Every structure is written in structure tokens, then in C-alpha cells.
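Might I ask for a little of your time on a matter of protein folding? Here, with my thanks, is the record as I have it:
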Amino acid sequence: MNLDREHRPPAILLPEETARTNLTLEQKLTLGLLCLLGGQLVWRYCQTGSFWPHYLLSLIYAVICFHKFFLIFSGLLRRQEIVISEVEILSRYEWPFYTILLPLYREKEILPQLYRAMEKLDYPREKLEIILILEEDDSETQQALEQISLPPWWRLVIVPDQPPKTKGKALNYGLVQARGDFLVIYDAEDIPEPDQLKKAVLGFQRSPEQVVCLQAKLNYYNPYQNILTGWFTAEYSTWFDLYLPGISRVGAPIPLGGTSNHFRTAVLKQLRGWDPYNVTEDCDLGIRIFSAGYRTAVLDTTTWEEANSQLPNWIKQRSRWVKGYIQTYFVHMRHPWHLLRRLGLVNFLHFNLIVGGNFFVLCFNPVAWLLLLWEVIALQGSTFQFRSQGVFDILGLALLWGNLVFIAINLLGCLERKYYRLVLASLLCPVYWVLMSLGAWKGLWQYFLCPHFWEKTAHALFFSEKSAVKSEGDQIA
């Protein structure tokens, strides 16, 4: 096995292009003024019951929900994903050199599954390199690798134990080693369809040169493990099968998923890879690709992952995602007028609704429910009355609309994937929305306290549970 311990540093983005600094002075002043204004308005509401900003907040909330619904139906009405047939694959005999990047951190339990998944890929081995990227302090995974006899097309890159310790930084160390014409990222628990690399090559061949990234679809191989994996699967089915194709359909910037992104390697190096300080480096890169004049398309092939089945583990993952979306939003909004000129007005609005709206809705949702609760329990005399009927009417309508949209799109996602057993889970997904909001508020809190901290998500829980059940059955027998 080839081992690179030279620690060749990758090309990096300029400091002002990264999330190394949370907020600029202008952003801090603007947010400070908004907080003061918000505090004054809340105080006035407590004194008089007059709180007109709820109209504006509810309108923004409703527009974001409608926008998501619009994008999903745009994708349904006219498919915009790249579909490659088996005939096209079989008719081609020459394939370009392909690099697979596998960033791992404390993943020894899932190494056997990862090795099998990569070796099942249908791609000429003389045209393939698989680069394992390990952190220097991850001795347990390094020791586990020593027990596996890896083929010569596998290589190992060790990332120096220096901050920040993020996936984006690790990927940059792998990128500098990549020799392929094309490159893809997979996570430790990923099981891509065997012909995915060939489909990506033909997808790039069919696409204009400005398409430099193909996003494969992600879904879960344990949708029925428990109610949480059911909700998570419904969400992913909606996001990758309906939402991203809808974004592609209208030509808006696509926030990439964290895995199964296929790139033209030369352009990715030209863009200097990923932001090492952003904990959702995929979302940020998708926006930078669009801002640079390139485009992303959706490829109709699936990579199967493990859905989080344990709530504390799921909360860690969700809070990191939301924190990264917040980072991405404020990094690109440091110079809003410059971003407006580069994206154009329509795509500038799409960016604000897709990236900014993603965390706004999740953070605003519990606030809206608390305002409604305050109205319900506000006593005047001896009976329940609403201090401001407008608050109840407007917020109630917005929340009703938001929950109906959330249920509808999750149902559509399940039906698209033929997950008919998840229909009941989709009807109960407002409970899942509450959990998402908890993760969002944790992510917002961490954005200010520990913005670059990467909360490790445990994998192989599904197989551990299956093994435990099997072991218990053996004992009973």
C-alpha cells in the first residue's frame, strides 16, 4: 500500500473566502442592531400586545416554504437529471483515469463494508486510484488497515494533526494527490451502485463543459430500522430525488451533498478545493462552483448510506449541518452587492431562500410556536383571550402552511422511492421537524461558541444492532 507522509500542503482559499472568521465587522454591527431592535419590539409586545414584525417574519416563513414546494414541483413536472442507460455503458470501452477520495476518522468498525463496496465498483482497475485519507492521531483505523491486504490501486494519505480538524481540510490533502481526470468523494458508510463511476463519465460527456460537478443521489439502506430512520429516509428521498433536481431545473445554485460528488479534477483544483473551516464544506463548494460560472447537475444513480438510528448521534449530525449552512450563508453574504452582481437577482434570491432559508425556517419554527403558546395562555380577567388576534391568525396560518408543506413533500419523496411503508412516518413528520429545530438551535449556538468544531458522527450502528440481535438470539437458542 502506498503511503504518503510528506504532508504536501494543498492550495488553500484566501482567508476572506473561508469561514475562519465568523462575521465581518459590518455583519456584527448589523446583527447587533437587529438584536437591539428585536429586543425593543419584544419589550413593547410584552407591555402593549402590539407586535407588528410577526407579519414580516410569517411572510418570510411562508415564502421559504412555498419556494421549496415550487422547486420540488418544478423537478416533478420536468425532469432535469442525467439518466444513463446500460446500453450507453456497454457501448464504451475506453475509460478515463478516476480518483476516489475516502476521508475516514475512527471508522475501523465499518472498514470491511467500505472495502467491499469500493471493490464492487465496475471500473477498470488500471484506470482507478482509491485514496484513503486518515488523520494522524487516528491510530485505531491505521492499525485496522494493517490487517487488510489492500490492492495496489489503494493509497493512503495521512493528514497532519493540526487545526482545523474538518472533512474539508482532509479532502484538500487528498485533492493535492489526485491524478484522475475525474474525482469523487465517498464517506465511510457509503455503498454506491457498481456502475456509478461509468455513469458519471458518460454524464460529463453528455453535459456542457461548464458542468463541472455531478451530484449522485443519496438514500438509506436501513429505512425501516426505527421511526427516526424512517423520517430521515423520507427527508433524503425528498432532498435528492425531488428538491435538488428542482433546483437544477430552474438553474439555481445547488448546495452539494457531502458525498458522491463527481468533479472534473482540473477545475476542482482551480477552485482550490474545499473551505477547511466550514463544517458543511459541500454546501459552500456548491455555491462557489456556481459563483465561478460553472454548474452542477444531478446524476440518476444512488449511493446507499446508513441513516442515523440514535437520536443523540442524529442531533450531532444535524447541528453540524445547520452550523455549516450558517457559515456558508454569512461567508457569501460578506459582500452582498458583489454576490448579487455575480449571481444575478433571481439566483441571488434563490441563494438566500435555499441556504439562508434552510436554517431560518428551522430556527424560527419553535419561536413561532412559543409565540402562539404565549397568546393562548395570556389571561385577561378570568378567561383565555388572545392579546393580539393578528399574531394568532398570521402565525397560526404560517405554521399550518409550513407543516402541510413538510408533510406533503415527505410523502412525495417516499412515493418517488416507493417507500410505501413510510407513509405513516411521513404523516407524523411534524414531530421530526421539532427534532430538526432542536438540532438547528444547537448548531446556531455552536456557530458562535465553537464554529470549527466537527462533531463526530458514529457509523455502523445498524450493523452493530443487527449483530447484537443475532448474538442475543444465539444465547436464547
Q: What stands out?
A: The radius of gyration is 23 Å. The first strand starts at residue 2 and ends at 4.
